[in-house]
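Support case: zinc ion complex. Customer-provided input:
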Amino acid sequence: MNVYIIGIGLSPPRKISPEVSFREMIYEAAEKAYLDAGIEPKDVDTFVSLSEDYEEGTAIFDEYVPDQLGAMLKPVHTICADGATGLASLFAQIKTGHFKIGVLEAHSKLSNILYHSHVHAMALDPVFVRPLEINPYFVAGLEMDMFLDSRGYDELDTAYVVAKNRTNALLFGRSSFGSFISPEEVLLSESVSDPLRELDIAPNADGACVIVIANEEIAKERGRDLIKIAGIGFAEFTPNIERWEGDAEYLKVAARKAYSKAGIKNPVKDIDFAEIDDTFSYKELQHIEALGLVSFGDSAEALKEGFFDLGGEFPVNPTGGNIGNGNTSLMNGLRAIYDAVLQLRGDAGNVQLKSPESALIATWKGLPSASGGVIILRREG
Amino acid sequence: MAQKVAILGAGLTKFMRRAKETGKELAFEAARMALEEANMDISEIDCVVMATAPDMFDGVHMKGDWLSDGAGAKRKPYMRSYVGGGSGVFAIIHGWYLVASGLFDTCLVVAEEKMSSCMPHPQGAFNAIYDQFLERPLGVNLLWIFSLEMMRYMHVHKISLETIALVSVKNKRNGLDHPCTQKGIAGEYTVKDILNSEVIAYPVYRLMVSPVTDAAAAIVITSEHEAKRRTDNPIWIEGVGWCLDTSYWTNRDLYYPKYVEYAARMAYDMAGIKDPRKEIHVVEPYDPFAYKELHHLEGLLLADKGEAPKLLEKGFWDRDTKDGIPSCPSGGLLGVGNPIAAAGLMKVIEIYLQLKGEAGKRQVKREVKRGLAQAWGDLMQVGTVVILSK
Amino acid sequence: MKFEGISLGLKEFEKEIKVEWKGKLEYEWDCGIALSKFMEGLKHGKILARKCYACGRIMIPPRMFCERCFRPTDEWIELGDEGEILTFSVSFVNWDASRRKKPEIPAVIRLLGTSENMGILHKLGEVGDTLEEVLKNVKIGMKVKAVWKKEKEREGAITDILYFKPIKRRK
Ligand SMILES: [Zn+2]
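Agent response - structure generated as follows:
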């Protein structure tokens, strides 16, 4: 049995959102998604929400999920994971045949956290790492250093990611983080944890996103925009940052599963474009290599040659990725799914690619995790 | 369509007020024991599911990721699901859908809780479960939601404190026979003993409350063909259900857990159960507080509204009942301990052992072919139900 | 079967090597449309509810959408500050599990004029200092009235209401 995405809704990422509570923001996204899917919340059989307590400032945030989704007295649960892993949970539920329509929700109110570094620090090992009291961005700095060094890349290579994604975001026109910026200008930004600079980091943003999926029967009844979830995979590497090898091992494991489900032999040939996590600039290149889009050590050159540009052979993050749209934490993956669906439907405006048939989405849970997932979407008909 | 899913092995650590082990070590011990019983190596596990309650207990953000290596999830598909106190029973539901969907054939389900790390007292972590706008500023306390709900339940059905104390008496006695029971929790108590204990938040007395506990539990589940290849008498997951009610908990009549009923109906439908009072032979409802067991038995439709206390007085829920339904034969959270998520999975394991006839001194007298475990959580809001059968 | 686990007594536990951490975990949550207006109302001694025309419910805490009808709510309704007790408790324990001599009395109170079961969490006051006194003075279903902070001390928070006290009936 196949599973399809039948509705998407977004309360767009922005720097702050004092005008709405988290409930009101999620309600906006849910209303749009249900309208898009042509359903009412009572038609939904199961709901999954993504959250982490320390980002909400609430213990057991699961409590505050149902109302704004119209999900009271329904099967609802939280998954503490990135977008692809969250979608995999819902996908599996539909695949059991016991549920027809499922809803995935994620949101961000990162602007409500007063000391974000302290929240990040809580995710570091309390015995070995946290007592060192270094700003947690050092984890990204170290990994970036290892990644660049092992490939012989330099900081200008990753600056190209920032330039591409900020420019794409500006062209797309939804985000306030878009800008024409040259790779050289990126290198002028302040160092955070060498070689990581301020502009290498996707800026924190608030927002909400809701995705509606359904089984084949419901999707075909609905008729238009048949976007199939052709493959999905997710994996954990290790939380011990000392063991990281700079290769995004989690995505390798996740991609293997997703590709095999979707029958993909050569991702660059078999897929038309990708939404790939770029919460830090180097992550985009690291993830590109882990996904096998190019060989080890070839991503920087390909990027510079325009291979991943809007007009390139394999566009990556055509709407600007997280660097161009903002880092919305666990919602990043849903924003990526949302944007990929826009492309597949031909609704991506200024950054619309030429009738793409399939999309690759790779999501990462964020600092300092080593978990993520991969989704393959395919348009049918 | 759904693959059938079986349980092949289970593991538990001791239940402890303060464990020397870290959360990861506890998770490892339970997982190892479950794998041993299933006679499987970690390399044969396709995916790992983790259940653990608030990150604030451990003071670790992204606690699921942090525990992953202890649960054997390195380089594996791994997910942490979360429905507060309902997480322990939800964990097996989570594993069920990952396997039933055909995505995976084998799944290791781990539930871990280390509450003793939270200072000055893990109860503090629960303050942050209340609404941050209108409730937390009042200087809230976790016990309030229970005492308020218990008062409403007693008021509507005119239930006496003595009757509710009987739940503590029963479960603390049953807990004496559980090998993992937390020191000082189980025992022979009288109703008088319970009501002579300190009033902590009337109508809740100290001996009506489950303790703070460190522990882990784990089970191995597989698809039908894996199960049949590996064992002659697997225990099957026949039905699952879960349901979450509104977060505006003060806008509901607290006397009845409708969300438990909805979760139970979902599980009964899946298992093809028409008359649960005849078809469920042993039950492990969630009993973090004494009244909760009765409240949940009614939600599970095993008793009419307001009738569970009367059946309790008649011994209907006793472990050695002949014509009743034994409830909490393990001793439950009141008699074994309450490591939130691990406590829920402990209940599932109790039903598993009862069905296998391996519950030792706790084995119920009546014949059992089918049993049910249930947990509850969030702001008196979520019900999670699983039905197992031989 | 062997069950693992090394249980520590309080004394042993205190002797264990431990790592301590206090995070600077602070948040400023956006109240949004409904609660901002509600809090502003409290500052002026008003309690505001929100009505949904589809189901007719008058809701508190107020919300901009009706979770049952899944549509925007329609109208602000000003309530009085009297209510009835749906349930209450007499609490002798603080958030850190330490004990208190004089109890707190949390209660779910339905404000008059709202729909069925539309309670909010608050506290009761002027009902006694011991369990016996409180149980004598408080009954479920009893009518209560808000006791407010002095106007200039109010800050637009739920604590602008100090507590609810019983309404004395004159016969
Ligand atoms: Zn309505």
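Chain A touches chain C at residues 17-25, 27, 31, 34, 40-41, 54, 57, 66-68, 70, 72, 109, 111-115, 118-119, 121-122, 126-127, 130-131 (CB under 8 Å).

Case will auto-close in a few days if no follow-up is received.
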